[in-house]
Amino acid sequence: MEGVTVDTVREMESADWASLSDEELLERRISTLGLQLQGTALEPLIQQLYAELTAHGLVFHPPTHIGDEWFVPIGIPAIFIPFFLVHDRLRALERTMMLEVEGETPEWFMKLMRHEAAHAYSYAYQLQRKKKWQRCFGHTSREETPDTYRPRPFSRSYVVHLEDWYAQSHPDEDFAETFAVWLTPGLDWRKDYAGWPALRKLEYVDELMRSLAGRLPVHTPTYRVADYDCLNVKLKTYYARKRKLNEDTYPDFYDADLRQLFAAPAGIKASAYLRRQRRRLLNAVCQWTNEKKFPVNQLLARLTRRCDELGLHVLNDDPQQDFRVTAFITTLVMNYLFTGRFKRTK
């Protein structure tokens, strides 16, 4: 069609996708949905980040783009925000596919934005090359970046900002988390981290950012957003990959525990009980372990199937059953969290 640009075609294709069923929507390529940040509920939150930076005299406002996840490309001082946050229909699909939406509340969104802004500042001002930065946070390189890490939950050498003690995953993340705490409005980090070795890092970030006040970035490379956004893929492919990445790795040796937990000689099937209580158990376990819902839901599904295979039952009128089951699943998750490895994702 003459006179029809690629952008026009995309607008035509995106006109009615919000009303599609999940099955139909999953067949759409993300890059054809016509998504943009301008005019969405995210725009004032992005402006809030810029205002927080300006309040400290920092003049660099990292550009923001839509991508497949939260990230700052290596060497590129720009923040990519997950596409599913841009539209309510996509948030609903994300919740259906992954059981939760990372960054869906304004508070959660801003925590992630402050974290990613730190990475953008690191690249824009080449902070990781500074000797004092390296002494404070450690040396960093692309070759030495681990895919997983094993945190020490009670360490006071690191700030606590995002979940999973993320500051402990890598020197870059240690800086990003420290920067995010430093930038958070109304947070008295000197008081909150008094007596912690992590306070030294916060004081260094404060000193470093004061030195950058009013200074333009030294590294602003040109780049094509399409080279980094990873959106030229169908939604069904995106979620197949994401689900595989988030599959649980919990051990499966719990038959003895299940037989003890569901020891009633008769009553309702234990599998039926777990299916009926799934949402309540899922919410309770995730609230107190801070684990993501998708892997915990998979664990519940595995336990449910195993109860069926073992033919286990539970008394229908046992008021303590919910407590025992919640405690058991929480113990499974926490044992894994404290002895397993976390995936570095941001």
Helical content stands at: 40-55%
Q: Rough shape? A: globular
Total helix count?
14
Structural class: mainly alpha
Domain count: the total is 2
Describe the protein:
With 346 residues, the chain is mostly helical. The chain has 2 domains: 6-239, no CATH class; 248-343, no CATH class. The protein has helices spanning 6-14, 22-25, 43-55, 88-98, 106-124, 131-137, 171-183, 189-192, 198-212, 235-245, 255-261, 270-289, 293-310, 321-339; strands spanning 64-67, 79-82, 148-149, 268-269, 313-314, 342-343. It has a two-stranded parallel ribbon. Strands 3-6 form a two-stranded antiparallel sheet. It is globular, with a radius of gyration of 23 Å. 27% of the residues are buried.
Write a concise keyword list for the protein shown above.
346 residues, mainly alpha, 2 domains, two-stranded parallel ribbon, 14 helices, 6 strands, globular, disordered N terminus
Topology:
Blueprint: H1 6-14, H2 22-25, H3 43-55, E1 64-67, E2 79-82, H4 88-98, H5 106-124, H6 131-137, E3 148-149, H7 171-183, H8 189-192, H9 198-212, H10 235-245, H11 255-261, E4 268-269, H12 270-289, H13 293-310, E5 313-314, H14 321-339, E6 342-343
Parallel strand pairs: 1-2
Antiparallel strand pairs: 3-6, 4-5
Helix pairs in contact: 3-5, 5-7, 7-9, 12-13, 12-14
Provide a brief overview of the structure.
The chain is mainly α. It is built from 14 helices and 6 strands.
